[in-house]
């Protein structure tokens, strides 16, 4: 029995674009060019080992939770239903789905794809298996997939979009999935045909069997490789790329002004950016030290000077930022607000109390054993705005006698350091999700340690695991609010990371050739390139002018 429809079925009807233009009036054709910061492209079409390159492009998600509109956008799935006891999830696929080679895409492929991530643990993106609650994934018929859970979990469906649906006939024959490059890719997304791949560029073109009629409107998507942010701006200016998702200094003067009719940007609030602290190492194991490192920072000045005023300073010490503004507890923010107010004198007093004093007169504080307190703050090479932010942070720390250094590292080093807790301090973002409980899961659930960038700080407890897990046992908004408030208190009292600001969603676009972009006037989705679900909604709307 699965009578409780937590998520309503898709209403099929006339497909309209977000601009309200009837699909058949739109001109087919054209190529969208987007920049990718990295070391170049190789012929690897495994969606699990190519970061987010292929999600929502070559591989269609089952559904997308649109945090901008609050709607659930069904994709390969037609509907998702929970059983009354919240222990079974029934995913019903759309009729007549096909792979890009024309063969049928069935519930067997979906069940296989999820079961595959049990065996290939590195692909278990959201820990649905390692978390221990998922019992089985089976196809009950050609169109229905049943996820059976040990315990009630109303949040389980939020994890589904992160997993890639792949063809069983190909992937079931692979011996080592982690090194599989999927050389002749078969996909379900809007762009599945590989036109060419070289180190500088890769072009993917229309899926001839895409499940939405007349979509995508565009013919192809070209990825261009760039070393860092500084190369993106001139490329946008010259019209080499249509869509930018990276920081650009003084965007009004350097980009918009040159062609106000076609050069645009829209920066809605995004994830909270923190300085993650490794609390397992002295002196960061001392709460007073972490508090001192927080009150030593003038967040507004950092935003204005280092980040050109685009982010929003985050004075909320409960772990979440403006993206989740409706969930921020005003009581918690008020009670702990001193922890984010710029107060260098208080920072010095806290460090004195923690026993960190300048013992040799060199201007820097030392540990009780005489060792100078010195640490690196890790940031990725080429992330120019964050490097400037970290530089400013080190200057504020120097004012209170703490020696911190900017350490720029390659992405692979950054990724490993955060996952394996090999950092002292690292600037990093937080989870953008359907609900902030998922951000707290990433921060504190012990099952996430070693798998995510956000859980390596060392503050965890069985009680907090239990509290986070209790969220999914209910569908009652009041109970869920209570849980979120408690987690905000826990974060404020332990300070495993120091809040800095809410990042803007970096989004610049050139409308000279292509229309259908999300904007402040037409905010149909948060314009995030690096999220396959949001990206596929945009790719389905873009079209030639």
From TrEMBL:
<dbReference type="InterPro" id="IPR030678">
    <property type="entry name" value="Peptide/Ni-bd"/>
</dbReference>
<dbReference type="InterPro" id="IPR039424">
    <property type="entry name" value="SBP_5"/>
</dbReference>
<dbReference type="GO" id="GO:0043190">
    <property type="term" value="C:ATP-binding cassette (ABC) transporter complex"/>
</dbReference>
<feature type="signal peptide">
    <location>
        <begin position="1"/>
        <end position="23"/>
    </location>
</feature>
<dbReference type="Pfam" id="PF00496">
    <property type="entry name" value="SBP_bac_5"/>
</dbReference>
<dbReference type="GO" id="GO:0030288">
    <property type="term" value="C:outer membrane-bounded periplasmic space"/>
</dbReference>
<dbReference type="GO" id="GO:0015833">
    <property type="term" value="P:peptide transport"/>
</dbReference>
<dbReference type="GO" id="GO:1904680">
    <property type="term" value="F:peptide transmembrane transporter activity"/>
</dbReference>
<keyword id="KW-0813">Transport</keyword>
<comment type="similarity">
    <text>Belongs to the bacterial solute-binding protein 5 family.</text>
</comment>
<dbReference type="InterPro" id="IPR000914">
    <property type="entry name" value="SBP_5_dom"/>
</dbReference>
<feature type="domain" description="Solute-binding protein family 5">
    <location>
        <begin position="73"/>
        <end position="446"/>
    </location>
</feature>
<protein>
    <submittedName>
        <fullName>Oligopeptide ABC transporter extracellular solute-binding family 5 protein</fullName>
    </submittedName>
</protein>
<keyword id="KW-0732">Signal</keyword>
